[in-house]
């Protein structure tokens, strides 16, 4: 009995130690992750040259710019890996808090918009859906930079209600698989990426 208890006691201590080490590890990992982000208050556009072709027309001004991380989704259609969805989290560059999520509507809206951004506002989420109108190849390692035109918006003016243009800039990775070898129609692959999204409203 005693030995049994002792062993159980030891294993509790072991578990407790493992838990402490684990949470310490998670803490260190989280802290390191935070530090590797832009410093608090940093302007996500400070190191980005926006190509002229991606600029919105005159009469529009920047409303918000958020760094985002997530995945692009590709489905094999028999010839190509076709980008059909995305899933990314946009964060406030100053607080690192989640401000919105990016996804594609299940089907395009009446004006052909599908990529969408939804504010992280449980009471009344604001959504902008848009359609890509300009796309430029910047790096062979990353998905294109694009300018999109809003096709539908909902919610608050402070969020996405008045947004007319969206840009995807400073992309990193997110490309489809290099090969289609062995792929079957309907196969899905996800590809990790990061970008900066900007939102423009009438000035
Ligand atoms: C597959 O996607 C490509 C690129 O979007 C398109 O041109 C082609 O028609 C599609 N093929 C089929 C079978 O849907
Ligand atoms: C994209 O994924 C979201 C969930 O993250 C889903 O609600 C949406 O319907 C998907 N869109 C498409 C086109 O599959």
TrEMBL record:
Protein's recorded name: Uncharacterized protein
Domain of life assignment: Eukaryota
Transmembrane segment boundaries: 12-30
UniProtKB keywords: Membrane, Transmembrane, Transmembrane helix
InterPro entries reported in the protein's UniProt record: DUF3455 (IPR021851)
């Amino acid at each position: 009995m005693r030995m049994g208890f002792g062993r159980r006691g030891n294993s509790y201590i072991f578990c407790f130690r493992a838990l402490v080490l684990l949470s310490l590890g998670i803490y260190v990992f989280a802290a390191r992750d935070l530090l590797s982000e832009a410093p608090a208050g940093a302007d996500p556009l400070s190191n980005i040259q926006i190509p002229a072709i991606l600029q919105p027309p005159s009469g529009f001004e920047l409303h918000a710019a958020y760094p985002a991380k997530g995945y692009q989704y590709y489905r094999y259609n028999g010839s190509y890996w076709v980008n059909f969805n995305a899933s990314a989290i946009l964060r406030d560059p100053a607080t690192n808090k989640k401000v919105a999520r990016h996804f594609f509507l299940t089907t395009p809206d009446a004006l052909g918009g599908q990529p969408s951004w939804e504010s992280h506002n449980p009471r009344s989420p604001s959504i902008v859906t848009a359609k890509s109108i300009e796309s430029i190849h910047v790096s062979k390692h990353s998905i294109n930079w694009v300018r999109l035109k809003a096709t539908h918006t909902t919610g608050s003016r402070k969020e996405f209600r008045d947004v007319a243009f969206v840009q995807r800039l400073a992309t990193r990775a997110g490309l489809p698989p290099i090969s289609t070898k062995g792929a079957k129609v309907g196969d899905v692959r996800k590809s990790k990426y990061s970008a900066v999204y900007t939102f423009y409203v009438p000035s």
